[in-house]
Amino acid sequence: MNGPHNHNLVELDLNCEAGMLSAIPNKVGPRLETPMGGVIDVSRPPGSLTFHTNAEFATVILAPSPNMEAAFASDRLQTFDAAVGMLVVNPSNVDRTLKWSTTKRNAAIAFGASAYSDLASSELEGANWELRPPKFGHIDLRALRLAKAMASEVSASTSNPLYLDALLTVFGIHLLRHYSNAKLHLKATASRRLSGQTSKRTVEYMNENLSENLSINDLARISRMSPSHFIRAFTLTFGMPPHQYLVNLRLKMAEKLLIKTNLSISDIAFQTGFSSQSHLTNTMKRFKHITPGKIRTTN
Question: How many angstroms separate the CA atoms of 33 and 20, rounded?
């Protein structure tokens, strides 16, 4: 590889109490965590890295990186051109060494300690699995589409954790189906709408927990469905995915509090599930084309 680079040996505890991604420096890129896992939109200058993690981890290349070198465990370094859409699957407790000579752009995707097991048991017949990495240079366009959506979400000023949780759920199922050694078969469940009772129970739960960091698993358990089937059934029922429906509920409640109470906009933001006043303001401008201050002064 041409040009100088700095080498780092990194031992990543991605399930530590301080946060799944806290061991990865903030300068690497914006990130967001959900109950399912975490994503970083990575941008790194030329360098090298030996990487060890206690969690299942995946990388999807978002910009070309020629003459990259990589190896798992004690294998020899392989040199290849990392094209957009290249997927690297890194099982837990397996070293990976990387060297790159140009700015590296990728989505780094980590899963919680029990995420894969939970997905396997709820989505697939048989929960025994072990991730098997594809060869270096392997392109996966489905993984690329999901990774682009996740990277965009973590970098957005109006990021939606429930949307990211749904994307992570779909991405995790994709990895299990295509990069696991287990012979897994989809459970036969026809696409269908939620029943009236289940719809009511789910919406009530959302309304009662607007300030909480809700997950797809939380909502799927209420519906007594697997996560992926819940996402499809909810979307069929309400004409929009769960994360968008939740945003609408939060904005509706925020508007009500702005009109009927003297609470500060910051307090209203936190009570309705937004991370900050600016998060509420940006989201309201995006979807309602008005600011919280404007609502308050005109009512």
Answer: 7
